[in-house]
Amino acid sequence: DPLTIMAMATIGGARTLGIEAGSGTLETGKTASLLAVSIPGFMTEQQDVAEYLVQSGCEGRIAWVNNGSGEQ
Predict the structure, then answer these.
(1) Which residue, 67, 7, 3, 5, is CA-closest to 35?
(2) Phi, psi for residue 60 in degrees, rounded to 5
(3) Which end of the chain is flanked by fewer CB atoms within 10 Å, N or C?
(4) Residues in Cβ contact with 35 at an 8 Å cutoff, skipping those fewer than 6 apart
(5) pTM (2 d.p.)
(6) Could you report the per-residue pLDDT of 34-68, keeping only the tens digit for each?
């Protein structure tokens, strides 16, 4: 399931690193490390976007990155 894989990569990764109190989900007070990826066409369903990201792997074109420090 793509949504499960996305959770493993976000909150799961933060838990593994012991930083889930301040990272891993988008919540007030947490550091947000963001990545924007160009996706083909128009996708409105969360499941479709997650499936594309999981299946495309490194083929997706990274359009923008913010590591949570304010630097881009």
Answers:
(1) 67
(2) -65, 145
(3) C
(4) 62, 64, 65, 66
(5) 0.65
(6) 777 777 778 888 888 888 888 877 565 766 666 66
Whether 21 maps to a domain, the answer reads yes
Alpha helices, H only, the chain: 2-9, 11-17, 46-56
Q: Kindly state whether residue 72 falls inside one of the protein's structural domains.
A: no
Give, for 33, the enclosing helix (H) or strand (E).
none
pLDDT of residue 32: 81
Cα–Cα distance for residue pair 16/13, rounded to 1 Å: 5
What amino acid is encoded at 62 in this protein? I
Residue 18 lies in a domain: yes
| Domain-embedded: residue 48 | yes
